[in-house]
Amino acid sequence: MTENRDVVCKAAYERPADELEEQVAAVIAEVLDVDLVGRRDSFYDFGGTSLAAIRICARIERLLGSRVDPAWLLEHDELADFAEQIRLGAA
């Protein structure tokens, strides 16, 4: 059963700012089985683990066609920060 974001995140929802953030949010939501992920939501708030980070990054790699290191997500756990790492890694 999909978890409601509001159950685990107390902060107000902030929409993804651009297409990359939307794509990454959708992958995170699918892998962690939550209804939606906002810009300032932490991967860890949804019960994120290193195995989940590997799964998320593998799916994003397939989607974008570029390397995405799971360490980026583990170190930059908020959606906006993780998306920025993906941008920097692709540059």
UniProtKB/TrEMBL annotation:
Pfam families: PP-binding (PF00550). It comes from the Bacteria. SUPFAM superfamilies: ACP-like. Transmembrane segments: none annotated. Residues 15-90 form the Carrier domain. Gene3D superfamilies: ACP-like. PANTHER family: FATTY ACID SYNTHASE, NONRIBOSOMAL PEPTIDE SYNTHETASE. This is Phosphopantetheine-binding protein.
